[in-house]
Protein backbone atom coordinates (compact mmCIF):
# COMPACT_ATOMS: atom_id res chain seq x y z
CA UNK A 1 0.00 0.00 0.00
CA UNK A 2 1.27 3.41 -0.92
CA UNK A 3 -0.05 6.79 0.07
CA UNK A 4 -0.27 9.54 -2.52
CA UNK A 5 -1.38 13.13 -2.15
CA UNK A 6 -3.02 15.29 -4.74
CA UNK A 7 -2.42 19.01 -4.68
CA UNK A 8 -4.86 21.62 -5.94
CA UNK A 9 -3.73 25.20 -6.15
CA UNK A 10 -6.39 27.88 -5.66
CA UNK A 11 -6.08 31.66 -5.44
CA UNK A 12 -8.17 33.78 -3.10
CA UNK A 13 -9.14 37.39 -3.76
CA UNK A 14 -10.39 39.35 -0.74
CA UNK A 15 -13.42 40.66 -2.56
CA UNK A 16 -14.95 41.36 -5.95
CA UNK A 17 -13.12 44.64 -6.33
CA UNK A 18 -9.76 42.88 -5.97
CA UNK A 19 -10.30 41.02 -9.26
CA UNK A 20 -8.58 42.17 -12.46
CA UNK A 21 -10.94 44.55 -14.28
CA UNK A 22 -12.03 42.20 -17.05
CA UNK A 23 -12.84 39.36 -14.64
CA UNK A 24 -14.57 41.83 -12.34
CA UNK A 25 -16.86 42.71 -15.24
CA UNK A 26 -17.47 39.04 -15.99
CA UNK A 27 -18.39 38.43 -12.34
CA UNK A 28 -20.85 41.34 -12.50
CA UNK A 29 -22.48 39.54 -15.43
CA UNK A 30 -22.70 36.40 -13.30
CA UNK A 31 -24.39 38.47 -10.59
CA UNK A 32 -26.84 39.81 -13.18
CA UNK A 33 -27.57 36.25 -14.30
CA UNK A 34 -27.96 35.10 -10.70
CA UNK A 35 -30.69 37.66 -10.13
CA UNK A 36 -32.70 36.12 -12.99
CA UNK A 37 -32.45 32.54 -11.72
CA UNK A 38 -35.63 30.50 -11.55
CA UNK A 39 -35.32 28.79 -8.19
CA UNK A 40 -38.69 28.93 -6.42
CA UNK A 41 -38.07 25.65 -4.56
CA UNK A 42 -34.61 26.08 -3.11
CA UNK A 43 -34.52 29.89 -3.06
CA UNK A 44 -30.86 29.42 -3.86
CA UNK A 45 -29.84 31.51 -6.84
CA UNK A 46 -26.79 30.86 -8.95
CA UNK A 47 -25.49 32.79 -11.95
CA UNK A 48 -22.67 31.85 -14.31
CA UNK A 49 -20.95 33.93 -16.97
CA UNK A 50 -18.59 32.49 -19.56
CA UNK A 51 -16.08 34.40 -21.64
CA UNK A 52 -15.40 32.72 -24.99
CA UNK A 53 -12.35 33.27 -27.17
CA UNK A 54 -14.58 34.84 -29.84
CA UNK A 55 -15.47 37.60 -27.36
CA UNK A 56 -18.97 36.30 -26.65
CA UNK A 57 -20.22 36.27 -23.08
CA UNK A 58 -22.68 33.51 -22.26
CA UNK A 59 -24.90 33.71 -19.21
CA UNK A 60 -26.73 30.95 -17.39
CA UNK A 61 -28.62 30.53 -14.15
CA UNK A 62 -30.27 27.68 -12.32
CA UNK A 63 -33.62 26.55 -13.64
CA UNK A 64 -35.68 24.52 -11.20
CA UNK A 65 -38.66 22.29 -11.78
CA UNK A 66 -41.55 20.98 -9.67
CA UNK A 67 -40.10 17.59 -10.55
CA UNK A 68 -36.87 18.46 -8.73
CA UNK A 69 -34.32 16.37 -10.67
CA UNK A 70 -35.48 17.93 -13.94
CA UNK A 71 -33.94 21.27 -12.97
CA UNK A 72 -30.46 22.30 -14.02
CA UNK A 73 -27.61 24.19 -12.38
CA UNK A 74 -26.45 27.58 -13.63
CA UNK A 75 -23.04 26.34 -14.73
CA UNK A 76 -24.44 23.60 -16.94
CA UNK A 77 -27.15 25.86 -18.34
CA UNK A 78 -24.38 28.25 -19.44
CA UNK A 79 -21.86 25.71 -20.67
CA UNK A 80 -24.39 23.69 -22.67
CA UNK A 81 -25.67 26.87 -24.27
CA UNK A 82 -22.09 27.78 -25.23
CA UNK A 83 -21.53 24.27 -26.59
CA UNK A 84 -24.75 24.42 -28.58
CA UNK A 85 -24.36 27.94 -29.95
CA UNK A 86 -20.58 28.24 -30.40
CA UNK A 87 -19.24 24.69 -30.73
CA UNK A 88 -15.90 25.87 -32.15
CA UNK A 89 -15.22 28.52 -29.52
CA UNK A 90 -12.99 27.96 -26.53
CA UNK A 91 -14.15 28.89 -23.07
CA UNK A 92 -11.56 31.09 -21.42
CA UNK A 93 -13.18 31.90 -18.10
CA UNK A 94 -16.21 31.06 -16.01
CA UNK A 95 -17.45 33.33 -13.21
CA UNK A 96 -19.98 32.04 -10.71
CA UNK A 97 -21.99 33.97 -8.15
CA UNK A 98 -24.32 32.12 -5.79
CA UNK A 99 -26.42 32.75 -2.74
CA UNK A 100 -29.57 32.04 -0.81
CA UNK A 101 -32.55 34.39 -0.81
CA UNK A 102 -32.99 33.43 2.85
CA UNK A 103 -29.63 34.70 4.11
CA UNK A 104 -26.56 36.56 2.98
CA UNK A 105 -24.06 34.17 1.45
CA UNK A 106 -20.58 35.40 2.27
CA UNK A 107 -18.59 32.25 1.53
CA UNK A 108 -17.50 31.31 -2.00
CA UNK A 109 -19.81 28.68 -3.50
CA UNK A 110 -17.98 26.18 -5.72
CA UNK A 111 -19.70 24.38 -8.61
CA UNK A 112 -21.33 21.08 -7.66
CA UNK A 113 -19.75 17.78 -8.64
CA UNK A 114 -22.02 17.22 -11.62
CA UNK A 115 -21.16 20.67 -12.98
CA UNK A 116 -17.47 20.02 -12.47
CA UNK A 117 -17.80 16.88 -14.57
CA UNK A 118 -19.67 18.83 -17.26
CA UNK A 119 -17.10 21.64 -17.31
CA UNK A 120 -14.30 19.04 -17.45
CA UNK A 121 -15.76 17.66 -20.68
CA UNK A 122 -15.36 21.03 -22.40
CA UNK A 123 -11.90 21.65 -20.97
CA UNK A 124 -10.77 18.30 -22.37
CA UNK A 125 -12.54 18.97 -25.68
CA UNK A 126 -10.89 22.35 -26.20
CA UNK A 127 -7.47 21.22 -24.89
CA UNK A 128 -6.93 24.45 -22.97
CA UNK A 129 -7.73 25.25 -19.35
CA UNK A 130 -10.82 27.11 -18.24
CA UNK A 131 -10.23 29.62 -15.46
CA UNK A 132 -12.95 29.40 -12.84
CA UNK A 133 -13.88 32.13 -10.36
CA UNK A 134 -16.54 31.62 -7.71
CA UNK A 135 -18.04 33.61 -4.86
CA UNK A 136 -21.14 34.06 -2.71
CA UNK A 137 -23.15 37.28 -2.66
CA UNK A 138 -20.19 39.11 -1.15
CA UNK A 139 -16.78 38.29 0.24
CA UNK A 140 -13.89 36.31 -1.04
CA UNK A 141 -13.54 35.13 -4.61
CA UNK A 142 -11.77 31.85 -5.32
CA UNK A 143 -9.91 31.35 -8.57
CA UNK A 144 -8.88 28.03 -10.04
CA UNK A 145 -6.60 28.14 -13.08
CA UNK A 146 -8.22 25.03 -14.49
CA UNK A 147 -11.21 22.80 -13.85
CA UNK A 148 -8.74 19.99 -13.24
CA UNK A 149 -7.90 21.48 -9.83
CA UNK A 150 -11.50 21.10 -8.76
CA UNK A 151 -11.95 17.53 -9.92
CA UNK A 152 -8.96 15.34 -9.20
CA UNK A 153 -9.21 11.78 -10.54
CA UNK A 154 -11.86 12.86 -13.01
CA UNK A 155 -13.59 10.36 -15.24
CA UNK A 156 -12.70 11.05 -18.84
CA UNK A 157 -12.95 9.60 -22.33
CA UNK A 158 -9.67 7.71 -22.01
CA UNK A 159 -11.58 5.16 -19.93
CA UNK A 160 -14.11 4.38 -22.66
N1 LIG B 1 -27.02 24.94 -8.06
C1 LIG B 1 -26.38 25.49 -9.12
O1 LIG B 1 -26.99 26.17 -9.96
N2 LIG B 1 -25.05 25.26 -9.25
C2 LIG B 1 -24.32 24.53 -8.37
O2 LIG B 1 -23.16 24.27 -8.63
C3 LIG B 1 -24.91 24.07 -7.13
C4 LIG B 1 -26.38 24.14 -7.05
C5 LIG B 1 -28.47 25.14 -7.96
C6 LIG B 1 -29.27 23.90 -8.20
C7 LIG B 1 -30.54 24.19 -7.44
O3 LIG B 1 -31.40 24.94 -8.28
C8 LIG B 1 -30.08 25.09 -6.30
O4 LIG B 1 -28.81 25.59 -6.67
C9 LIG B 1 -29.99 24.40 -4.96
O5 LIG B 1 -29.24 23.24 -5.05
Structure description:
By secondary structure, the chain is of the alpha+beta class. The chain has a single domain, classed as Cytidine Deaminase, domain 2. The chain contains three helices and six strands; from the N terminus they run βαββαβαββ. The chain has helices spanning 21-35, 74-85, 113-126; strands spanning 10-13, 44-52, 57-61, 91-100, 131-135, 141-144. Strands 1-6-5-4-2-3 form a six-stranded mixed beta sheet. α2 packs parallel to α3 (113-126). The longest helix has 15 residues, at 21-35. The two termini are 27 Å apart. The model has no long low-confidence stretch (mean pLDDT 97). Tetrahydrodeoxyuridine binds at residues 39, 42, 44, 46, 62, 64, 71, 73-75, 111-112, 115.
Short description:
The protein contains 3 helices and 6 strands, in the order βαββαβαββ. The protein has helices spanning 21-35, 74-85, 113-126; strands at 10-13, 44-52, 57-61, 91-100, 131-135, 141-144.
Tell me, what's the shape?
globular
Q: What average pLDDT do the residues reach?
A: 97
Treating each run of at least 4 consecutive H or I residues as one helix, how many helices? 3
User: Rg, please?
Assistant: 16 Å
Catalogue the ligands. Answer: tetrahydrodeoxyuridine
Assembly annotation:
single chain
- Find the CATH superfamily: Cytidine Deaminase, domain 2
Integer count of domains: 1
Largest sheet: 6 strands, mixed
Count of DSSP E strands? 6
Helix vs. strand class: alpha+beta
Terminal CA distance reads 27 Å
H and E order:
EHEEHEHEE
Major β-sheet strand ordering: 1-6-5-4-2-3
Low-confidence stretches: none
Strand content: 15-25%
Q: What is the architecture at the second tier of CATH?
A: 3-Layer(aba) Sandwich
CATH class descriptor name = Alpha Beta
CATH-derived topology: Cytidine Deaminase, domain 2
Domain CMP/dCMP-type deaminase: 21-158
Catalytic activity: 2'-deoxycytidine + H2O + H(+) = 2'-deoxyuridine + NH4(+); cytidine + H2O + H(+) = uridine + NH4(+)
GO molecular function, one term: identical protein binding
Protein name: Cytidine deaminase
